[in-house]
Every structure is written in C-alpha cells, then in structure tokens.
Design a protein that fits this description.
39% of the residues lie in helices and 18% in strands. It is an alpha+beta fold. The strands form 5 sheets. It has a 10-stranded antiparallel sheet. Helix 6 packs across helix 8, helix 12 runs antiparallel to helix 13 and helix 20 packs antiparallel against helix 21. It binds alpha-D-galactopyranose.
Length: 867
C-alpha cells in the first residue's frame, strides 16, 4: 500500500501517539453520464487507486484535531464535538460527517491526512474525504452501516452542511468502487451493475487542465434549477418522475413544451447523455472500444454546446488529445475546469502525453498533469505491516528473477535480520510496485531508527542495501552473463540490463521523470533532455559536501572498488550494482550499466587500473576490441583534457550503449579513400571526421594517423592554438554496422585565452544561461543533458513571455533576461525549439573549424594532410 508508513510517520510526528488506524478513500472519475445523477439517469463512474489516506487515533476527550500534509497552513486545526459549525475550511467535510453521527459519537479523534489527488481537479476529493471519515466512525462505533448508507449520509452532508447540491454519483463511486470495474448506476433507483473496465489495448488517460473550477459551485446549482424547471413544465402534461425517463424519440415532442432554445438544449443533453451511457455499457460489454471512444467525444460535444459546462481549457485539452491520437475524449465531472479523460492506445501513452502537453501549454500557458487511470477499490481500512511489505518484496524478487525460488527462506531471513525482526508471519502477497514497497521500507526504517542517514542519499543507499539482499553474488551474475553470451552478445547485455533495472540499480521510474524532446535540424535530430532524475543539491548541501573530507576509498566514482560499496553521506551506494569483466588489448577492463541511462542501454566500460584518461593509438584498438565483443553497441571515449573532456578525467573509461545517437545520421561529404578506408567530413557542429572501412586494422591505423596529425596541428588565424602546451585532442566513437567499421573522430582543443577564460572552444558566456558545463562525449554526439533548474525556469519564462511582463519579479530569470527580451519580440514562441537552437549554438562554439567558408576550407585542408 503506497505510503502507508509515511502516513503513520507523519501522524506520529504531528500528534505524538504511536497507535494509528489507517484508512484509504479513493478519488473517482466518471467515464460517461455527466450531469445525469440529479436527473434520475444512468452514470458510469469508477473509483481510482489515487485517493486520500487518513491516520486516525481515538481520543479520550471531545476534541477533534486535524492535520493535512498538503493543505495545512497552520499545523493542526482543532474543534470540539460540541461546536460543529462550518468555517469554510477543508475540515468542514470532517465536521459535517461528525455532525451526521453526533448521536453516536462519544469521543473525539486525531486525524492526519495525505492526499494523492490533485486538488480542485474534479476527481472528487470532497466525497473521498467524507467517506474516509464516515467509514472510520462506522467502524469505530460498530454502527453496522453499509457502504451505500455511508454514501447517502455523505451526500446529505455535502448538500446540507457544505451547501453543494450534488447528486449521488461521487459518494456512491467512492464508497462502492471495485478494482478494475466501472459502476453502471441507476441514480433513480440506486440499483447498479459492475461493468468490466477492461479497455483491451487501450487505457483511460486522465488529463488535468490545471484550470481551477471557480464557477463550478454556482453554475452547477443553476443547471440543477434549470433541470427542475424543465421537469415541472413537462410534468404538467407527461407523467414522468425524472428527465431521464424520456426516450430519444420523445425529445421532439418536448420541443413544443419547452420552447426556450436554451432550456431545450439542456434537456437534449440530459436525454441523449443518458442514452449514450446505455450505449457505452453495451459497447464495453462487446469490447467495442471504437464505439465507446466515439460516445465519449459525443458526450463532450453535448456538454459543451447543449449543457454549456465546458470551458476553453477543457475544449483545448480534448481537441489536443483527439489530435494526438486518442479515439475518444471528454471533460469529466462537473466541468468548468478540472480534468478531461481520453481513451488512448497503451503503447502510445507517452508520445500522446508529450504532444498534448506541448500543444496545451502553447495554447493556454497552464501546466497540465497526466495520470493513467488505475481503477481500485472503494473506501477501506488498510491493514499493512512490515511483514506485508517484506512478503511483497520477496514475491517481486522471485518474479523479477533476482534470485531463484529455492533460496526464498534464505532471502527472507536476510531481510528479517536486516529489519531487526525475529519473527516471520506468513502473509498473502499484496501486489505493489517496487518503488512503493521500497518507499514503505524506508519510512518503516526511519520510524524504527534503522535509517542511519536521513538525507535523500541516505534513503537511496538504504534501498540499495535492501535490494542487494535479494541480488545474486557477483560471481553468479558473471556466470549468468557468460552463459547468455554463449547464446549471443545481445542475450548477454539483455540479461545484465534487465537485471540492473530489476535490482533497482537503474531506477526506471525515476528516469522516466526526465523531460525529453527532439529538435530537428539540418545537422540531424538533436535530443534535448532535462535531467529530473537526480535531485538538485541545495546550497546548504553543496556547502556540507565541500566541508566533508574527500575519502580515498573507492579512489573515484568509476573505480572497480565501487562494486558492492555501501555509500557514504556524499557517495551513492553501489550495493546492488553488478559488473562483468572483459579484456581489451590484453588489459583487464569491466563493463557496467550507468544508473542514469542518458540513452538506451547506457553503459560504462572501465579499466581495472585507476589510471588517467588518455587518447592514444591504443585507444582505437580498445574501442574496436569492445565493439568486436558487443557489435550491437557503439562505444566512445571522452577526450582526455579538461574543458573538452567529461567530468571524470582520473580514470580511463568509455561510454557505450545500444542507442542510435543523433551524430550517426549526420550527412557526410567524401574527402578521399586510402588503404581501403573512406574518409568523410561530417556536416556536424563539432568538426568531425568519419572513417569507414571493412578492415579493422586499416581503420585503426588511419585513426592513429589523424590523431598524430591533429596533435601537431595549429592555426593561429582560427584560434586553434596548440603550442607550447598541447591543446589538441580527440573525442573518438566506434561502431560496426552492416559489415563496416565506423570511427568518428571529433577534433577538440581546450585552449583558454583572456577573452575566453573558460575555453575558446567551449560554450561562450552568452550561452551559459542554458549550458556552461563541459561538452563531453554525449553532448558531442548530439544529446543535451540539461540541469533540472531549467524546467522551473522555462515554465516561468513561458509565463513572463505570455503576460508580456519583465523578469524583475523573478531573480532566477536574471541570467535569461536578454534571451527573454529577444523572445518577446517574436509572435509565436515555442520554447523547446528555442532551447534546441541554443544547444546547436553551444555545439558550434565547441567546434574547432567553424561552419563558415574559411573554417570548412581549413578543415578540408587538414583532412587532406593525412592523405
Ligand atoms: C459533480 C457532482 C456529481 C455530478 C457531477 C456531474 O461531480 O458532485 O454529483 O453531478 O458533478 O456529472
């Protein structure tokens, strides 16, 4: 159960008792049947696995104290059972329910809540909170009420205490929801049927417009009144109790009785929506997703045009979803803001989200949020213990093939021992995501003083420790890797890559937080990534790190000594990292995956010896050796000098992976052929020579000649200064494709001058607001890795440009000031494209031969000197 122990810990921190009962109450989403529940028709909501968690502690007096992890501006909000008046505060929902039970309740309670529901998004956080409290009281005083009774009481509280004239749908869905089911509810009779919510290869995507539903209350009540007026009018000549009793064919007759255009449109929505709900349930039964999708879109049209409860933001979102490939989309809930839902192919979710997000921000300047709807059970008490968490973890370990099932007892005992438990309770497995299990274990450890270091890095190191208890030993991993290699190199890398992910060494979920887009250009399709997966260090943290004495073991982050290292307050644990040995040019090297995965199957090859980076003739032979072993991977080396090298210069290593890097598709101009090696000049912002040959010896020899020539090259006219100190070096990349060896040689120079103290061939100061770090191998190949601060800054810049304001109110935008002024002159700004342009400039700054005629002529001349 997600965040169970966190909830307990927060409650304990705020209100000191140790005994808490935890309840969970879901949010809801309505699939179809909107504004129908007060017209006696059919609706089809379902409860979500997102919701509100509450920790309750019974008191011995008549006081109620409430704390909300998300909303509390004051720490605790207190009231007495004897003074239950609404105060226009979130605790009114608690008060209202308490009041409804006032004849039963004797004692007050302490309540801490934590919500995973976005506030004001129309996912029914109010009904969720009402049922949370109602269910607790019902249990506590053994009132014996059914969930349906509790839903009815909650609706009454909402109507009478809170003052919103809502129907029964929300409270019903929250109380009665069932995992993987939608509820087809007749709101007139309250009879219902559980419908399978299996959308085949599709899923329901929830898109929060982030438009707050300010008008919701007043217009909602207005619509209810309009419907009442229509009903009364019709009842003069028709014997109906609710509008939804009308058939579609009766609608025309009604036109005569309801002559006002607006009122007739309201009626048309109600009747047609009720029928769309019937048709939707039939379509879902037949698993006819296309029809269901069309009905969703028709519902939206009707809500927009006839019922007039949509808004620009919801319409923009729905249109963007449909344009991006959803087969149906509509607003959900009361409207006027909040969320839309869409039926989308599971395989397309991430591309659709990316596209819709960009289009929506562009049009509205609001930041939308997206969730894939997982349908969970209704409000319930949560029984969860450390034993449950460990059972789920062990089950995960077996299913993810981290260890063999015959080792279950051994693994279990290792975990029990680690958590200082001497007892084992057999528990049915609660299916949970690994990240949720680990978060729970961290919180449990924190509460029980087993977490030695409370910081983020301390938590991560703790998780690595726990996962290591499930992982096989390095020797076993090497054996499994070698066995897979006998099948093929791809089998071997697949094995280690999957194992590294399953062992939580590569944290897929965290990496998915990165924001990436591609920027197409004449040079190629650049890839821009804002790295959100590493937390930004705050200034205090940086200060602390500086003060901590640098340890000498392991000597550096890339040393082989890291395998199984437990981490420190400043160093990440490598307990769950596994590495495999390999030989390159008769030297001992090792292969491991990068925990950051900047591209597909991003891995690192490191030398056994802790010797500095060096680019020399042998480097090409080592790269070739590696690709011979793993022909499906490219491999490259950072340059060996500061400024143009990577962040670690002290340990010889390469980076490799299965990804197709942008540089691969750069267009190439043939220059000459020699000894069966074709030599090309790449059209690329950094000066790059491409060698292509079927002969590995010839290509290595040729790369060597280019390196030697470059090491001796100087051109003062072009600022390529190389004497008296050597400044020229190379960033080399090697791969094997369609029976040919390909080596890219990116020419680098790290000279600094008075005018460019950070480097002549380094991003110039006017670009530092986007990127001022070294242009290493990954960037040089066309992938920009940008710091997380940029996400925040770009969002702010977007608002500043849109509102035509200045940057003075935002000190963090100071560094972008002149860029913003330029952008404000443009009529239509797409910030992703603008960042892309900057990245190209960054790379062009790092290019030694510039892109003008003189630069490229000199480049060609240099290449020819190697002929
Ligand atoms: C709100 C109300 C519900 C229902 C929907 C519209 O969520 O609380 O009762 O009327 O709007 O379908």
């Amino acid at each position: 159960m997600k965040d169970f122990f966190k909830m307990k810990r927060i409650a304990m921190q705020m209100m000191t008792h140790t005994d808490w009962e935890i309840y969970f109450s879901p949010g809801r989403v309505n699939l179809i049947g909107e504004h129908i529940d007060y017209n006696g028709g059919l609706v089809m909501p379902c409860s979500l696995d997102l919701g509100i968690m509450g920790a309750f502690h019974l008191r011995s007096d008549r006081i109620i104290r409430c704390y909300s992890h998300e909303y509390s501006t004051v720490d605790l909000y207190e009231f007495s059972l004897d003074d239950l008046h609404p105060k226009n505060h979130w605790t009114d929902y608690v008060k209202g329910i308490v009041k409804a039970f006032s004849s039963t309740i004797v004692y007050g309670f302490d309540l801490a809540i934590m919500s995973h529901l976005p506030s004001g998004a129309g996912l029914s956080s109010s009904a969720s909170l009402e049922l949370l409290v109602a269910t607790y009281i019902n249990d506590q005083y053994a009132c014996g009420m059914s969930p349906l009774n509790l839903a009815l009481i909650s609706q009454q509280v909402e109507n009478e205490f809170i003052g919103v004239q809502c129907g029964i749908m929300d409270q019903f869905a929250v109380a009665m929801g069932q995992k993987d089911k939608a509820i087809l509810l007749n709101t007139h009779t309250l009879s219902y049927e559980m419908v399978s919510a299996d959308f085949k290869e599709y899923q329901i995507l929830i898109a929060n417009t982030s438009k707050s539903r300010t008008l919701a209350g007043s217009i909602y009540n207005e619509r209810r009144q309009e419907c009442d007026t229509i009903l009364h009018r019709l009842q003069e000549t028709m014997s109906i109790q609710s509008l939804c009793e009308l058939s579609l064919s009766q609608l025309d007759d009604c036109h005569r009785l309801i002559s006002e255009e607006m009122l007739f449109r309201r009626l048309r929505h109600v009747v047609s929506e009720h029928h769309r709900t019937i048709e939707s349930s039939l379509a879902l039964n037949k698993q006819d997703m296309k029809t269901f999708g069309q009905l969703l879109s028709l519902s939206h049209e009707s809500l927009t045009k006839d019922y007039e409860v949509s808004c620009i933001e919801l319409d923009t979102m729905v249109n963007a979803l449909l344009k991006a490939g959803a087969i149906g989309a509509r607003m959900t809930g009361a409207g006027f803001g909040g969320c839309a839902i869409a039926l989308v192919l599971s395989s397309q979710i991430s591309t659709i989200v990316q596209e819709v997000k960009a289009a929506y921000i562009q049009a509205t300047h609001l930041q939308p949020e997206f969730y894939v709807a997982t349908i969970g059970d209704g409000t319930r008490k949560i029984h969860f213990s450390i034993q449950d968490a460990l059972s789920s973890l062990l089950d995960y370990g077996i299913k993810a093939l981290l260890f063999d099932a015959c080792e279950l007892v051994y693994r279990r005992n290792s975990l029990l021992h680690y958590f200082h438990l001497t007892n084992y309770e057999k528990k049915p497995v609660i299916p949970m995501e690994l990240d949720d299990i680990l978060d729970n274990l961290v919180e449990y450890a924190r509460m029980n003083h087993l977490l030695l270091d409370d910081s983020f890095i301390g938590e991560e190191n703790f998780k690595a420790d726990v996962m290591n208890l499930l992982c096989e030993t390095p020797k076993d991993i090497i054996q499994r890797f070698n066995k897979a290699y006998q099948q093929s190199p791809i089998h071997a890398t697949n094995f280690l890559y999957t194992y590294s992910k399953n062992a939580h060494y590569i944290q897929t979920k965290n990496i998915a937080k990165n924001i990436s887009w591609s920027y197409p250009h004449d040079y190629g399709d650049f890839q821009i990534t804002i790295n959100m997966s590493k937390p930004e260090k705050d200034p205090m943290m940086i200060k602390m790190l500086r003060e901590v004495e640098e340890s000498t073991y392991p000597q550096c982050q890339l040393c082989v000594e890291n395998e199984g290292f437990g981490g420190t307050t400043t160093r990440e644990s490598r307990r769950n990292m596994r590495i495999v040995p390999l030989m390159l040019q008769n030297e001992q090297w090792f292969f491991q995956y990068s925990p950051y995965s900047y591209f597909e199957e991003h891995a690192i090859v490191l030398r056994n010896e802790h010797t500095p980076m060096i680019i020399q003739g042998q480097t090409f032979l080592k790269l070739i050796d590696f690709v011979r072993l793993f022909p499906h991977y490219f491999v490259g080396s950072n340059a060996d000098f500061p400024i143009v090298g990577g962040s670690i210069l002290t340990h010889e290593h390469f980076q490799c992976g299965r990804a197709k890097m942008p540089i691969e598709d750069a267009s190439k101009q043939f220059v000459f052929q020699i000894h069966n090696v074709d030599v090309y000049r790449l059209k690329w912002p950094l000066s790059t020579i491409r060698l292509v040959s079927k002969d590995e010896k010839a290509i290595a020899a040729m790369a060597c000649i280019f390196l030697q020539k470059w090491q001796k090259y100087e051109n003062l006219g072009l600022n390529i200064i190389n004497y008296p100190v050597l400044h020229n070096t190379i960033t080399p990349i090697c791969r094997f494709k369609e029976d040919e060896w390909i080596i890219d040689l990116i020419l680098r120079n790290n000279v600094t001058t008075k005018a460019f103290p950070m480097g002549v061939f380094h991003p110039h100061p006017q670009l530092h607001h986007i990127k001022k770090e070294n242009i290493g191998l990954i960037e040089a190949m066309g992938i920009a890795i940008l710091p997380p601060r940029l996400k925040r800054e770009l969002d702010l810049i977007q608002t500043v440009i849109f509102n035509q304001t200045t940057v003075v109110d935002h000190p963090e935008l100071e560094k972008h000031a002149s860029w913003i002024r330029e952008l404000q002159k443009q009529s239509d700004v797409n910030l992703k494209v603008e960042v892309g342009k900057k990245f190209v400039e960054v790379l062009e700054d790092a290019g030694v031969f510039k892109q003008d005629f003189v630069g490229q002529q000199a480049f060609i001349e240099f290449i020819r000197t190697c002929q």
